[in-house]
Sequence to fold (292 residues):
Amino acid sequence: MAIKKVGVIGCGLMGHGIVQVAAQSGFEVVALESTQPALDKGLARIEKSLAKFAEKAVEKGKQTEDQAKAFVEAARGRILGSLDKQDLADCDLVIEAIVEDLDVKNALFAELGKICKPETILASNTSSFPISEMGVASGRPERMVGLHFFNPVQLMRLVEVVRGEQTAEDVFAQAKAFGEAVGKTPVSCKDTPGFVVNRLLVPYMSQALLMLDRGDATKEDIDAAMQFGCGYPMGPLTLTDYVGLDTTLSILEGWVERYPNEPAFVIPQILKDKVAAGKLGRKSGEGFYKWE
Ligand code: CAA
Ligand code: NAD
Fold:
């Protein structure tokens, strides 16, 4: 494995999980944030999750307390928190997990193209935007790939590996190998809107929100219907709270703008209203439901 040192930009809902699974799997990781409070919050989440894994490993008799402690310390020791992009210069792979806004992502990739060593593979965890465009913005489209993890990263077993129009074969192969090395099952995707999962999942979530717009059923009944009728682990409204209403809205707005004739891409009114009211889901304490 040529990849030894990994940079992760954004230590939010997704970024902190990517940092953690990479560090747990033996990679050196630079966790880059834009502010100290955001970095502190991300690192605190990693601590909490590592403690949970350690507790479970001891409970299940998989590790002794000393082994679990050593596992947590080793993972923690591989993470360097940083606010300075220059710390990414010698990373073999840099994964972007910042806000779902293509202009902001493109500006970041343009900077990374200048900062990172020529061999660095650049990856985006975007839910919905074209990898190829970010590659062009970076000035090294052949070294750009999509690495789309799922929430919560520590538990979900999939990673979508997305081939941009100019992604080099060895870059794609290394990205896939990295996905496997962090314990995920990689699937290969073309650079299409939403790749595989979100092309199916986000229209499903928005259809559930349209049911609320129309007053077809209550949120509790919609969620119970999909949980108990289809065996889904959580219903679509709980899932939207989990993903973040702001992120869901950004995905849909981006698609509606780019693909105005695609009937699956629609923006429910309730989603706009909730985001405007600051109800972003679990991350803000309230979305469709209240969260502790
Ligand atoms: N770190 C470590 N351990 C954790 C953890 C974390 N962050 N979160 C939960 N756990 C542990 C819990 O302690 C629990 O352990 P025990 O079994 O020992 O009790 C175990 O994992 C299961 O957790 P929970 O009991 O809290 O909950 P659960 O069994 O309902 O599973 C879930 C939680 C895996 C999230 C499940 O509800 C689920 O699969 N939900 C659907 C998630 C999903 O669809 N994700 C995709 C979102 S879309 C996306 O990501 C793409 C995009 O671009 C928007
Ligand atoms: P989030 O808002 O929880 O986290 C984003 C983090 O990036 C924040 O902590 C913010 O401080 C930081 N950040 C913003 N600009 C930055 C910059 N220029 N440099 C460094 N840090 C910066 O968002 P999230 O839910 O983690 O989503 C991140 C990305 O992952 C998005 O592209 C999203 O579409 C994608 N994604 C989200 C989910 C999900 O379920 N939420 C699942 C898969 C993929």
User: Anything to note?
Assistant: The mean pLDDT is 97. The radius of gyration is 19 Å. The pocket of acetoacetyl-coenzyme A (ligand 1) is lined by residues 49, 52-53, 56, 127, 150-152, 154-156, 197-198, 201, 233-234, 239, 243 (CB under 6 Å). The CA atoms of residues 144 and 155 lie 26 Å apart.
